[in-house]
Amino acid sequence: VQLVESGGGLVQAGESLRLSCAASGFTFAGHPVGWFRQAPGKEREGVACISDNDSVPYFTNSAIGRFTISSDNAKNTLYLQMNSLKPEDTAVYFCAAGGIVYGSNCLIPVEFDYWGQGTQVTVSS
């Protein structure tokens, strides 16, 4: 299984980015998926996810209203659309998939089986 993120970069506050996560050896459809981030000196935190038992997305509080998680099953690709970016969104962003995850537990990193290598997002003020 390989997950490969792309789409990170350097943007100014208020701008948008769309991250992509392409999977090989694994099918996103029907499995829990999520986006996580880790800033220097901080623990990895859940940003947005969809769990096993429902199709309702869950978001960390700071992402509500600004970020959207979606997937294209035909392309087997997961997306994170990030709008109105803030300097505090600066981090390495990871996609994750797999495992047995219910409800908002999909925001917990340890619940997932497979991880990408991460893509850097830097937001300047």
Report what the structure shows.
With 125 residues, this protein is mainly beta. 0% of the residues lie in helices and 47% in strands. The strands form two sheets. Strands 2, 4, 5, 6, 9, 10 and 11 form a seven-stranded mixed sheet that branches. A four-stranded antiparallel sheet has the order 1-3-8-7, with no helix packed on it. Strand 7 and strand 8 form a beta hairpin. The protein is globular, with a radius of gyration of 13 Å. It starts with a strand and ends with a strand.
* Main sheet attributes: strand count, strand direction, barrel closure: 7 strands, mixed
Q: What is the overall pLDDT average?
A: 95
Number of strands: 11
The N- and C-terminal alpha carbons lie at a distance of: 37 Å
The helical percent reads under 10%
**Low-pLDDT regions:** none
- Secondary-structure content class: mainly beta
Number of distinct helices: 0
Radius of gyration: 13 Å
Instruction: Note the beta-strand portion.
Output: over 45%
Give the SSE order as H and E letters: EEEEEEEEEEE
CA-based shape? globular
Give the arrangement of secondary structure elements.
Blueprint: E1 2-6, E2 9-12, E3 17-24, E4 33-38, E5 45-50, E6 57-59, E7 67-72, E8 77-82, E9 91-97, E10 114-115, E11 119-124
Parallel strand pairs: 2-11
Antiparallel strand pairs: 1-3, 3-8, 4-5, 4-9, 5-6, 7-8, 9-10, 9-11
Summary, kept brief:
With 125 residues, this protein is mainly β. It has no helices and eleven strands.
